[in-house]
Amino acid sequence: MSSDPTSIVFDDLELATPILRSIQRLGYETPTAVQAQCIPHLLEGRDLLGQAQTGTGKTAAFALPLLSRIDLKQRDPQVLVLAPTRELALQVSEAFQSYARHLEGFHVLPLYGGQSMSTQLRQLKRGVHVIVGTPGRVMDHLRRRTLSLKGIQALVLDEADEMLKMGFVDDIEWIFDQAPETRQVALFSATMPDAIRRVARKHLTDPMEIKVKGKTETVTTIEQRHIVVTRHHKMDALTRVLEVEKFDAMLVFVRTKTSTAEVADKLEAHGFAAEALNGDMNQTMRERTINRLKKGQLDIVVATDVAARGLDVERISHVVNFDIPNDPESYVHRIGRTGRAGREGTALMFVQPRERHLLKAIERNTRQRIPAMEMPTADDLSEHRIDRFMLMLRETLAEQDLDYYYRLLSRLEQEQEMSAMDIAAALTYLSQRERPFIVEELQTQQRGRSERPGRKSNQGRGEAPRGDRGPGEGKKHKERKERPSRRDDDIPRETYRIAVGHKDGVSPREIVGAIANEAGLDGAHIGHIDISEDSSTVELPEGMPKDIFQHLRRVYVCGQKLDIELDEGSRGGKGKKSHRGKDNTGEKKAGGKQKSKQKKHQSRKKD
């Protein structure tokens, strides 16, 4: 192999032939610095301590060599990758799947809190070669004995410093104890605090140390803005932006292949010329879509990072990050699809309240602030539609011969006894029936919930979504019985009861993480939390939208469904009706529900 890292190509790295075929198909030509330095050592089976920023290509740095050593005949997990968040776990899992395209029968499984446990159990029974999971859900499966690490040959800690910030160090230690002592370990971290060094000294054997700095360029010809929006209203935000924003062609980035089709279909339903572009499309279909975009037959393409690789279409005036990228390098690559060759471009980014830390990371790495913009309001849309209608009228009056229509209007007035004003009003209504001038405001905008930029959320501090920590994690969680209320605003609240308590090993952190994540709610708006043995109560802002309430009922925390309901006997719920439409009957009814839950719990124990 060449001694000059800059002259190395993937063929020099002795990767397995099927893996080389996959990366060639993906368009990879030369390895990044972290890949060139890490792959040879990991292929040899050495432990590795890598300091590399997100966006330097570190996922491929450990995935490619570990896949090259996979035994496809062995159905038990051989590689375990621990990631701090479900988003990163999904991203790494998708990368493994892409790199293993030519490994027949290969299976990778992401494990994270909030996903259906039955689905994960079914996939585990089928047989899995690589597990990519958050520490909490991996611990959950290990305790249930639905996952065994006896066959693990390599264990990877990705973004170890983020896991440290989220309080996962003890969990990582526990998981290490369940794995064979002979396993290979690769630890990657953007920074190397003492706690990470201690983990490395304890669990890595004579590791090879690699340090690579990321290169992130700022893009000065592109106007960049972001909108804080909940997950449930991202589609509304996109369609509203498309209506009020003048654009030639647009590239919309999402995280998954499934999302490309979903978003494109919804845009088409709203009357926009949109198509998906993803890795499942063959080269002919891909070229057809790109050519249609170039010729103006298509205005919007919804794509993943991989599918948009090498895309250069002069018409693209706007890039929308429908799903915020997990690393600054991806952000720079995405928005670089506009503003090319010195032309001006616009980049918009949708940021969920729990994703503000990703926005800050992008701003820090690009060394520039990305200003916030408000989602277009109902009034904005109304004014825009009226302006467009008036322009259309003026152009028609100036350019069209309307003599026949003047005569028809005169006839209608005489024969139907209609005034010209009545006829004009009816015709205006008919012409705007699909996009009425009167637009209903979104519920979150009416209440001002969680959409305001600048509020500090628990997810922004890196707390685990949907209860990524497993049950029974020690006395320290049980001792924190209550979470004090942080009433830094005057938001009226009501009390809800959830079917998860001390018996499930839950702590306030899991509850806050799950509700903030799934309801798109700023953690600062979650009030007092009281945890008892079989259930808990939590104060939330009044007037929870029905769709969010129904969604929260199905969310799992520590393996237990929230089954959230308005607490009819508590201080926040007095005198109100529950979301199920039952009247408040006071403490007696609430107590009856509690006894019913205890009976169910006892029944489960007998089973």
Task: Name the descriptors.
607 residues; alpha/beta; Rossmann fold; 4 domains; seven-stranded parallel beta sheet; six-stranded parallel beta sheet; 22 helices; 40% helix; globular; disordered N terminus; disordered C terminus
Tell me about this structure:
One of its GO terms (biological process) is RNA catabolic process. With 607 residues, this protein is an alpha/beta fold. It has 4 domains: 5-212, P-loop containing nucleotide triphosphate hydrolases (Rossmann fold, 3-Layer(aba) Sandwich), CATH 3.40.50; 222-377, Rossmann fold; 379-431, no CATH class; 455-606, no CATH class. Helix content is 40%, strand content 14%. Strands 3-4-2-5-6-1-7 form a 7-stranded parallel beta sheet, sandwiched between helices. α13 packs across α14. The chain is globular. It starts with 16 loop residues before the first helix and ends with a helix. Residues 1-6, 444-488 and 571-607 have low confidence and may be disordered.
